[in-house]
């Protein structure tokens, strides 16, 4: 199917806000809970202003006018860390296993190369098999593990650190 991946702008704010609140409402066992959802002000912070244009990226996946996926990336702030950044992503469950996650990663990496990043990092819950497999298939390696960092209800999970050199 012809999904479009694009860099989000202010005009996408309402659509991203709607999508993310839907997603958080699912209480997925791989994304931190937000009992009160996400505000438009928080979503706006994902969208780079002119100052952050080389440091921050928000990509959305569209099916027609509907936002069906979102990826946010940001550069680390401290001088010794600025060659790298980390990201978070999600796809609407109705569209899982259609290649949308892979497309979002591909576009992020293009943008990161264009903006002289050397490395991309991420954190993922150890139970999140689909995400770990997606990252592994796309060249992200295991770089460490924070034991028992996540407790939700009666479940305890490790936080896996993954990374990919692109420089
Ligand atoms: C993790 C996540 C982003 C993956 O997104 P996705 O769009 O399903 O990813 P893709 O479709 O690119 O790849 C997933 C699988 O579908 C397969 N696939 C891709 N295109 C396909 C197609 N046209 N037909 C069948 N399978 C396909 C891929 O090969 C891959 O297979 P695998 O799981 O056996 O390795 C999604 O599951 C998600 O949003 N999860 C909840 C949020 C989350 O956990 N985010 C990550 C936090 S770290």
Mean pLDDT comes to: 96
Give me the count of strands.
7
State the fourth-level CATH superfamily of the domain at 4-117.
Answer: Gcn5-related N-acetyltransferase (GNAT)
| Shape type | globular
Q: Could you state the order of secondary-structure elements as H and E?
A: EHHEEEHEHEE
Percentage of residues in strands: 35-45%
End-to-end gap:
31 Å
Helix content estimate: 25-40%
Structural class: alpha+beta
Name of the CATH architecture of the domain at 4-117: 3-Layer(aba) Sandwich
**Rg, Cα atoms, Å:** 16 Å
The CATH class assignment of the domain at 4-117 is Alpha Beta
Instruction: Write down the CATH topology of the domain at 4-117.
Output: Aminopeptidase
**Major pleated sheet:** 7 strands, mixed
Task: Describe this protein's structure.
The protein has 167 residues and is of the alpha+beta class. It has a domain of 114 residues: Gcn5-related N-acetyltransferase (GNAT) (Aminopeptidase, 3-Layer(aba) Sandwich), CATH 3.40.630. The protein has 4 helices and 7 strands, in the order E-H-H-E-E-E-H-E-H-E-E. A 7-stranded mixed β-sheet has the order 1-2-3-4-5-7-6, sandwiched between helices. Strand 3 and strand 4 form a beta hairpin. The protein is globular, with a radius of gyration of 16 Å. The N and C termini lie far apart (31 Å). The structure holds coenzyme A (COA). The site of coenzyme A has 21 residues, from strand 4, helix 3 and helix 4.
